[in-house]
Amino acid sequence: MATVRCLWSVPARPALQLRLKPQFLLSTIQQRNASSKHPKGFEPPTYADLSELRERVQEFTRREIPEKVAAKTDKSNAFPNEMWQKLGEAGFLGMTADEDVGGLAMGYQAHCVVMEEISRASGSIGLSYAAHSQLCVNQLQLNGNPDQKQKFLPGLIAGTSIGALAMSESGAGSDVIGMRTTAKAVDGGYILNGTKMWITNGPEADVVVVYAKTEPDKGSKGITAFIVQKEFEGFSCARKLDKMGMRGSNTGELIFDGVFVPKENVLGEVNRGVKVLMEGLDLERLVLSAGPLGIMQAAMDVTLPFTHQRKQFGTPIAHNQLVQGKLADMYTKLQAARSYTYDTARKIDEMGQIRTQDCAGAIMYAAERATECSLDCIQLLGGMGYVEEMPASRLLRDAKLYEIGAGTTEIRKIVIGRAFNKEYSSYAS
Ligand SMILES: Cc1cc2nc3c(=O)[nH]c(=O)nc-3n(C[C@H](O)[C@H](O)[C@H](O)COP(=O)(O)OP(=O)(O)OC[C@H]3O[C@@H](n4cnc5c(N)ncnc54)[C@H](O)[C@@H]3O)c2cc1C
């Protein structure tokens, strides 16, 4: 196992030049780590690299996702479609992907940084971003064969095509293995029949990673992952869902009505789709945990100046100890959640160590804290917290999703408990 190095003690590497020069110079004190979850030759970024990346994303969000874009996306419940190409041009859509298909190969800490900063600007643009760059792009990066990667990743990473992942069904959410969509083997491929529910980016997706039962009698051992293209006959989006939050992150119900999928579009091995699904879920939960971090930071961004400007009883309300108590709670929740997410991501980048209980734990912790922080933000803004002129209600509505999507809080607790059962199984005998 590689030595854990202190990020703060590492000298800065030359400035990152996203897109222009994504390659990193080798730092002499860096360890090469064999991880099957990173591109070949991956070098973990230093603290300086990550700080610089954060500044670049902040420059991007200040320019492209100011508050008026975030508010309009929420009110209109429509994704600003020009954003895909802008995100692509900035290099943010392929954070974990190979450089030869246009990716930056920067790893999961870097992906979390981008996800956090985009979500700080707009929770719903952040959610759609992660559905594309993590759920679709990273699943293709990890499980695609060379031909599939060359065919699909350049367009997805450039932002000229949009990605999604379809696992959930109306009757199979928490119990996703109970899915009923089938894939029947035929000459040259498979015929897919069924529906998928709550699919982020579903209404506009060009490329969808879809799970279906190739051998329905075999339960989890009869699931296969497929790459479905928008133009395939029989594939459609039945409706766009009207949600309480994450408005503008388009969510749809997808229909597969006798869709022929050629065998070249099988992702991973036939009947081994559950491996693709479960391993993908760990990393999905980790990267998505940066979404509630961004929302908590956004709550601080609104609450701190407001409470120092707003005067009651002749003094800024932030000078009252009850208000200070709430601010302290918000701040420490954010910092604790942030440490958990980035520590979990750093262990993956630097040691290739993916702990299921920490991926589930990081999102579970951050999601619940984000709901609490958004409620505190509303409370501290008083009447202004309750009106739509301020972003406080949007933050709450967006934050709540993270207690549901990518497995609910309850399911995350089960996942954590089961991971311990596995680790301690020898104690039972
Ligand atoms: C905005 C949004 C975007 C989404 N994006 C995607 C996407 O891109 N792709 C995709 O595949 N899916 C997506 N989903 C689906 C999401 O993953 C599911 O909604 C989630 O897994 C919960 O499933 P469910 O809605 O069927 O709830 P259910 O499974 O019906 O659960 C209902 C309640 O029962 C609880 N519960 C269920 N089983 C247990 C148990 N064993 N023990 C204790 N409590 C239990 C749950 O925790 C929950 O509180 C999205 C959902 C939303 C809302």
The number of E-state strands comes to 10
- Uncertain runs are 1-15, 19-34
Order of helices and strands: HHHHHHEEEEEEEEHEEHHHH
Which distinct ligands sit in these coordinates?
flavin-adenine dinucleotide
- Structural class per helix/strand content? alpha+beta
Overall 3D form: globular
What is the typical, i.e. mean, pLDDT?
A: 92
Name of the CATH first level of the largest domain: Mainly Alpha
Q: Could you say what the CATH topology of the largest domain is called?
A: Butyryl-CoA Dehydrogenase, subunit A, domain 3
Integer tally of domains: 3
- The side-by-side strand order for the widest beta sheet comes to 1-4-5-8
How are the elements arranged and paired?
Elements: H1 47-64, H2 67-76, H3 82-90, H4 108-121, H5 123-143, H6 146-158, E1 163-166, E2 182-186, E3 189-200, E4 207-213, E5 223-229, E6 235-240, E7 251-262, E8 266-267, H7 273-309, E9 311-312, E10 315-316, H8 321-351, H9 356-381, H10 392-401, H11 409-423
Parallel strand pairs: 1-4
Antiparallel strand pairs: 2-3, 3-7, 4-5, 5-8, 6-7, 9-10
